[in-house]
Amino acid sequence: MAPRKVALVLAGCGVFDGSELHEASAVMVHLSRSGAEVKIFAPNMEQMHVVNHLLGNPTEEKRNVLVESARIARGNIQDLADLKVSEFDAVIFPGGFGVAKNLCSWAVDGKDCTVNNIVKATLQAFHSAKKPIGLCCISPVLAAKVFPGCEVTVGHDKNVDGRFPDAETATAIQELGCKHICKNVGESHVDSTNKIVTTCAFMCKAPLHEIFDGIGTMVGEVLKLA
């Protein structure tokens, strides 16, 4: 069987204003182990803001999402506007605040957010072509905004044992008319109707290897659907 071709969409570099590095790396490791061919993309746009990751506060600096994402891609990256869905079998979006700040405005507007036009068009194109979409951490909110009625997980809808501090995200997803499925960090949820696969990753306070393994289940299910 020919290797599956997967597009990976990044949102910058660093958890507080871009893609979560460990999640992006985990997706790439699992895809590599599965023999998939991966091409990396990011929108060519200015970040909402730049956060000093040591101090946790925004700075006056300006950075570009594509240029910053190139750090994770080791320079081998393309503008999301140039992605051709016909050349791929699936698309995956890792998490990180960049998804909620750059790919959409969830970090500021919550469920009333807007999704970047190119990101929205990319998601709709894969969905229309009946090709699977993988999302982890906060990125399932993209599906919740673009595909009303879909099923996703961002972990649990209650802060169980303090491990799910962002549980209100699940409530917001349900308020958008989508179905939130509670899953633990090592699990993913498959919405087989929409071919959307989601896992909570760092939405759960869990050891890194558990997050890595949970992302592995998401990648595995995406590849099965592809």
UniProtKB/TrEMBL annotation:
The gene is FBXL3. PANTHER family: ES1 PROTEIN HOMOLOG, MITOCHONDRIAL (PTHR10224), GLUTAMINE AMIDOTRANSFERASE LIKE CLASS 1 DOMAIN CONTAINING 3A-LIKE1-RELATED (PTHR10224:SF5). It comes from the Eukaryota. InterPro entries: Class_I_gatase-like (IPR029062). This is F-box and leucine rich repeat protein 3. SUPFAM superfamilies: Class I glutamine amidotransferase-like.
